[in-house]
Write a structure and sequence with these properties.
This protein has 196 residues and is an all-alpha fold. It has a domain of 30 residues. Helix content is 77%, strand content 0%. Helix 2 packs antiparallel against helix 3. It starts with 15 loop residues before the first helix and ends with a helix.
Length: 196
């Protein structure tokens, strides 16, 4: 048995007959307000009303979910799925653009390599043509100098041969004069000319 305290007093356990007499006005009997001492939700006599209120509450909760919460959730899921689909489409579009950019880059790189090779080949051909022209020019100059040298040599030889004839005549005349005494210049000239 419990004793409820009066306003401003502390609760004290009621023990013995003297304590019950001192606080007789503050006692509450154990069975007051509790019909048989059962917890009301577990009392079988209240099951029908509990089931009725459960059905009403469940029905109202179901209607609230069906009319307010589920449409919002459906809209959120639909928005998210459409956003995901848009993001996937955008990603596919960007991937296509990136692939096209890579293909254009590779094509431009191949064209640049081909142009570089063509420019290099043109430069090699131009350098080769210039070297060939310079070689021909040098050869032509050398041929001219060689022709000049040969003509000079021929002139010198011809001049020397003229002088050789005169020298041979004078030498032969001198030898004949020393051997014979007197030489005929016309006969010596004819003899030198015959031996040339």
């Amino acid at each position: 048995m419990f004793v409820t305290p009066a306003y401003g007093q502390e609760a004290a356990p009621a023990t013995g007959a003297g304590a019950e007499g001192a606080q007789a006005g503050t006692q509450v009997p154990a069975d007051v307000g509790h019909e048989g001492g059962l917890f009301p939700p577990f009392d079988p006599s209240t099951f029908p009303s509990q089931i009725l209120w459960l059905a009403i509450t469940f029905g109202l909760f179901y209607l609230f979910l069906k009319r307010a919460v589920l449409p919002r959730l459906g809209n959120i899921l639909e928005v998210r799925s459409s956003r995901i689909a848009q993001d996937l489409d955008q990603a596919a579009k960007l991937k296509g653009e990136a692939d096209a950019a890579v293909a254009a880059y590779e094509q431009a790189l191949a064209e640049a390599k081909a142009n570089a090779n063509a420019i290099g080949q043109q430069a090699r051909d131009a350098a080769k043509a210039e070297a060939e022209a310079a070689r021909k020019s040098v050869e032509a100059g050398l041929d001219e100098k060689l022709a000049e040298a040969e003509s000079r040599i021929a002139r010198i030889k011809a001049d020397a041969m003229k002088d050789v004839g005169a020298i041979a005549e004078s030498t032969a005349t001198a030898i004949v004069e020393q051997l014979v005494g007197k030489a005929d210049k016309a006969a010596v000239a004819a003899a030198v000319a015959a031996n040339r």
